[in-house]
């Protein structure tokens, strides 16, 4: 069969075509219809399969992260327990309201022990912060620079937390004048355990 024979085939008289031509046409039509129907019916399940495959990858990564987290759980619990013990220890170092007179006594004892003359001592107004209260204590002392250094060393070694926030040094008759604000801290009432 030649190209001219194919051109002379009439699509309105398919029944008159040779058998092989009708089989070929039916095969082409069947293939096209199968592809169209396959695309229609299989597109949704295929896209669902792709989404499930992508979700599987995400879930595997999430599982891996949770597995690593659970593998470190005991270590993190021990770390948390150590931090809680540290926090408890630090809270014990902070003076409570009824320990402030003892703290004042300890500070004045350090001053007199180191041959400093106390000219003024007084609590200033407490400063409320978010989680704690700063308790400033104003001190005016007279003495030598070395004695003042020993005094600061003694304050640093007190069992309670005391920090020197402000310090002014002035020269007086035979020695130096020291004006300082030392502060201790305690938890605010709402933060008390």
Automatic annotation (TrEMBL):
<dbReference type="InterPro" id="IPR014717">
    <property type="entry name" value="Transl_elong_EF1B/ribsomal_bS6"/>
</dbReference>
<protein>
    <recommendedName>
        <fullName>Type IV pilus assembly protein PilO</fullName>
    </recommendedName>
</protein>
<keyword id="KW-0472">Membrane</keyword>
<keyword id="KW-1133">Transmembrane helix</keyword>
<dbReference type="Pfam" id="PF04350">
    <property type="entry name" value="PilO"/>
</dbReference>
<dbReference type="GO" id="GO:0043683">
    <property type="term" value="P:type IV pilus assembly"/>
</dbReference>
<feature type="transmembrane region" description="Helical">
    <location>
        <begin position="20"/>
        <end position="42"/>
    </location>
</feature>
<dbReference type="GO" id="GO:0043107">
    <property type="term" value="P:type IV pilus-dependent motility"/>
</dbReference>
<keyword id="KW-0812">Transmembrane</keyword>
<dbReference type="InterPro" id="IPR007445">
    <property type="entry name" value="PilO"/>
</dbReference>
């Amino acid at each position: 069969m030649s190209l001219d024979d194919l051109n002379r085939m009439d699509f309105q008289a398919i029944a008159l075509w040779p058998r092989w031509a009708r089989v070929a046409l039916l095969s082409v039509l069947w293939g096209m219809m199968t592809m169209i129907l396959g695309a229609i019916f299989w597109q949704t399940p295929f896209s669902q399969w792709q989404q499930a495959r992508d979700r599987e990858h995400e879930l595997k990564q999430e599982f891996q992260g949770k597995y690593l987290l659970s593998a470190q759980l005991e270590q993190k619990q021990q770390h948390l327990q150590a931090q809680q013990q540290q926090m408890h220890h630090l809270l014990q170092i902070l003076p409570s309201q009824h320990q402030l007179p003892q703290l004042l006594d300890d500070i004045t004892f350090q001053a007199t022990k180191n041959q400093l003359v106390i000219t003024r001592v007084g609590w200033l107004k407490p400063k409320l912060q978010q989680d704690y209260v700063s308790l400033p204590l104003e001190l005016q002392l007279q003495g030598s620079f070395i004695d003042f250094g020993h005094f600061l060393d003694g304050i640093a070694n007190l069992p309670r937390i005391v920090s020197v926030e402000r310090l002014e040094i002035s020269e007086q008759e035979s020695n130096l004048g020291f004006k300082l604000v030392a502060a201790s801290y305690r938890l605010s009432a709402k933060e008390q355990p």
